[in-house]
Design brief:
Number of strands of chain A: 14
Helix content of chain B: 25-40%
Structural class of chain A: alpha/beta
Largest sheet of chain B: 9 strands, mixed
Oligomer: heterodimer
CATH class of the largest domain in chain B: Alpha Beta
Shape of chain B: globular
Number of helices of chain A: 15
Strand content of chain A: 15-25%
Order of helices and strands of chain A: HHEHEHEHEHEHEHEHHHEEEEEEHHHEH
CATH topology of one domain in chain A: Rossmann fold
Strand content of chain B: 25-35%
Number of helices of chain B: 11
Shape of chain A: globular
Distance between the termini of chain B: 26 Å
Number of domains of chain B: 2
Distance between the termini of chain A: 66 Å
CATH superfamily of the largest domain in chain B: ApbE-like domains
């Protein structure tokens, strides 16, 4: 056997075998009935009011309207052009409000979607919960640890259904990855590398002649007052995955980054790297850049027996060549010993194909999350991404950002201690971040 | 006379600078309006199986960048909504489940489907979003065209027919009355994406022209709608201009054999199949080869979505039937370019101007 054949055989063994999609097919069972509105009883129709009708709000309206038995009955925004845009998305002359409390006073609203700037989540989510309605609150949960505490406490105080908008949590390929990780199928997971790399300015155009008045309103993501930056807007999904896979929150965070390319007056870093340390010496390394999209958005989960690469549409599994279960035949092992030299082929990056058990029946993650929200309302059950899931995600994001802002290693215990006491003694509601 | 000869005598217009065609990939090149020539910025983006190009006149680099970003993000969103290649797209969800029972969808998707079926109705089925299985049987979907066997074609036809798509506006549902039906929005979604891009740029007061793969384009802003001429290229030699047209407030779309076609036994078969055919050898594109054949159609319409769909329909229908069908659509024009034994023929219906009449070696007409 030549050296080439030896390495090829070793590579081939990296790919998982014997795993079928049968178990995953079950996940989609029961979905067929959920496409038609005819089977929805009139009492099960859910009227949703939307606070924040910008790009994300409009997208979520489209998704909600793909769930049978949902109607959008109120649109609230402080930027008037959003009303026409929102009505176009709802396809009807939906009632509009410039004051969210007026929307919450309306009698024809059963549930509320909050898709406002991050710094306003606490104010809007808590007011909506206090109005007695189920709430879908966009991620990240809150801009600061205090905001996150207040929202979590308000959910518990009011007893209302709350779902945080971590939609990938509902994606079957993410759930399957968590199941396999939990079963030890890729060994002990020690590291996760997550990136969300874009090549754009993250800036929205402001209508000509209104730059002064509208810049901070339309480009709120670029300013500290309202935004948690790339880590909140993009990283929250990946942080939620790491928290779930590790079954814990980080113990500490260090960060790097800055405003290094898009020097257009923004206050939020245009690139950021954070390393979170989890209990047991496990690590999440997260990278966000806005100048190259080769790597796109992905999470690479590294275990001692294999790896999984997650994207927004699929999951790919790889086996480690030295995994005990790979059962490398003795003759290969003997030949393997004969290889010598300064470079070792197995250290080269693996470029072969992995196994992707789900590819044909992927559903839009946002649609799955909306379906969950409506189903939880109808069946009075707790969403998978409840206030506690949101709290761990939101606090992790907030403290990751703090590590960059303060330029030091942040120990989570400093803040989680405060949070623990806060949960016993709810702090005064923080409505202005 | 050979077609090429028709242009060599100088009747046709050859672009002065061939590089323009690369920089401004319109159907035959686009001449930038003088008013914005110095501040014009361009960006291209691959999506929906084609190359989108955005030309705009922004106040500064930051605004230009922001405009490109939101427009290209929107185009990506629409690809993820309407693509049949993405299993998580809304179109894929409908294709998977609409034969099982009514599937509710959002107003944007519903409206696009309703518009598509409206064009089908008014063109007697010459435009048909269920033609996908037929396209696949001819190998056009995989870009490996071939003559299908009659049996294969008959089986594909069982899974085609826009009348089998049942829309219920009251419930906003989509139902396939026949199993195996698959929607393919390739001939309308690109146009819709151009409309959405223009709408976003108009809302922020930026003048722009958006172009999908040189075949669908629309403009916003006075300098672009009246100062920017689009030249319609010869389908046999892109460097030669048949005529020039200002977009005005209308959108333009061009369909032609150039995009995908093959020749078999002396006949040219195009990816623009006639969904109404029963026999491949009698297909409109095939039959026309014996006398004259549509090579290219350009349509001007109030929206890029409509122009996109109508250019396909007008190609399939040909001038005579197409003109009759077009009368049902407000403010729509079309220009057909035929080939035949005696050269090239241009026929217009409500076509603005008469520049193309100057092709003295080609026959021409206008209704």
């Amino acid at each position: 056997m030549t050296f080439y054949h030896l390495t090829q055989r070793l590579m081939d063994r990296r790919e998982f075998i014997g795993i079928t999609a049968a178990g995953l097919g079950a996940l989609s069972l029961g979905l067929q009935d959920c496409n038609s509105p005819h089977s929805v009883a009139p009492s099960d129709w859910v009227n949703v009011g939307v606070i924040g009708v910008g790009g994300r709000g409009q997208h979520m309206i489209r998704m909600l309207l793909r769930v049978p038995g949902v109607r959008i009955t109120g649109l609230c925004d402080i930027y008037e052009p959003r009303f026409a845009e929102g009505r176009k998305v709802t396809g009807e002359p939906t009632a509009v409000y410039t004051e969210y409390r007026k929307l919450l006073e309306a009698r024809d609203i059963d549930a509320v979607l909050v898709a406002t700037p991050l710094g306003l989540h606490a104010e809007h989510v808590i007011a909506a919960l206090d109005s007695g309605r189920p709430v879908y609150g966009e991620k990240s949960l809150g801009r600061t640890v205090e905001d996150c505490n207040c929202i979590r406490d308000a959910v518990r105080r009011t007893g209302r259904i709350f779902q945080v908008g971590l939609q990938y949590h509902y994606a079957p390929w993410y759930q399957e990855a968590l199941r396999r990780i939990g079963e030890g199928r890729i060994g002990k997971v020690t590291h996760i590398y997550a990136c969300w790399h874009r090549n754009n300015s993250w800036r929205r155009p402001v209508p000509r002649g209104q730059e002064t008045q509208l810049e901070r309103l339309l480009n709120w993501r670029l300013y500290r007052e309202w935004s948690g930056g790339l880590l909140a807007e993009l990283g929250s999904h990946q942080i939620n995955f790491a928290n779930t896979a590790f079954g814990a929150m980080p113990e500490s965070a260090i960060a790097s980054g800055g405003i290094d390319y898009w020097k257009d007056g923004r206050e939020i870093p245009d690139n950021m790297q954070v390393i979170f340390r989890y209990p047991g010496g496990r690590t999440l390394e997260a990278s966000y850049i806005t100048t190259n999209r080769l790597d796109g958005a992905q999470e690479r989960i590294f275990g001692t027996g294999g790896s999984v690469v997650l994207t927004h549409t699929d999951a790919t599994y790889f086996k480690e060549p030295s995994d005990p279960n790979s059962a490398v035949p003795p003759e290969i092992a003997i030949q393997h010993k004969l290889i010598t030299g300064p470079t070792y082929s197995a250290e080269q990056p693996y470029h072969g194909k992995g196994e992707s058990p789900i590819s044909g029946e992927a559903e839009d993650a946002d649609l799955l999350a909306c379906r969950e929200f409506i189903d939880c309302i109808r069946n009075k059950r707790r969403p998978k991404t409840d206030e506690q899931v949101g709290w761990t995600e939101g606090v992790t994001v907030a403290l990751g950002n703090r590590a960059l802002e303060e330029g030091r290693r942040i120990e989570f215990s400093e803040y989680l201690g405060a949070a623990a006491s806060a949960s016993q003694q709810p702090p005064e509601r923080n409505t202005q971040s | 006379m050979q077609m090429d000869d028709a242009f060599r005598d100088g009747a046709g217009k050859r672009s002065a600078d061939p590089r323009r065609h690369e920089a401004f990939p319109g159907p035959g090149g686009v001449n930038a309006p003088v008013a914005v020539a110095d501040t014009l910025r361009a960006r291209s983006h691959r999506a929906m199986g084609t190359e989108f190009a955005v030309y705009l006149d922004a106040a500064d680099d930051a605004q230009a960048q922001a405009c490109f970003d939101i427009v290209l993000d929107e185009i990506d969103r629409l690809e993820l909504t309407f693509s049949r290649f993405h299993s998580s797209s809304e179109l894929s969800r409908l294709n998977r489940h609409a034969a099982e029972g009514p599937v509710v969808t959002d107003p944007e998707v519903f409206q696009l489907l309703a518009s598509a079926l409206d064009v089908s109705e008014k063109t007697g089925g010459a435009f048909d979003i269920t033609v996908g299985q037929l396209t696949r049987s001819w190998g056009f979907a995989e870009r490996q065209p071939r003559i299908p066997e009659a049996r294969e074609l008959a089986a594909a036809r069982e899974q085609v027919g826009w009348r089998n798509v049942k829309l219920d506006a009251a419930w906003r549902t989509v139902l396939f009355a026949r199993p195996g039906l698959q929607l393919d929005l390739g001939a309308i979604a690109k146009g819709y994406a151009v409309d959405r891009a223009i709408e976003m740029l108009r809302s922020v007061g930026v003048s722009a022209l958006v172009d999908a793969g040189s075949s669908s384009m629309a403009a916003t802003g006075e300098a672009f709608v009246s100062g920017w001429k689009v030249s319609i290229a010869s389908p046999v030699d892109r460097a030669l201009t048949i005529c020039e047209v200002e977009l005005g407030k209308r959108a333009l779309s061009t369909s032609g054999v150039r995009e995908q076609s093959f020749v078999h036994d002396g006949r040219t078969y195009s990816h623009l199949l006639d969904p109404r055919d029963t026999d491949p050898l009698d297909s409109a594109t095939g039959a026309q080869a014996t006398a004259r054949q549509v090579l290219q159609v350009t349509v001007l319409a109030p929206s890029s979505m409509l122009a996109d769909a109508l250019s396909t329909a007008m190609f399939v229908l040909g001038y005579e039937h197409g003109s009759a069908a077009l009368a049902q659509f407000t403010d729509c024009s079309a220009l057909w370019i035929y080939s035949g034994a005696d050269g090239i023929t241009c026929l217009g219906h409500r076509w603005p101007g008469d520049d193309f009449l100057s092709l003295n070696t080609a026959t021409h007409g206008q209704t």
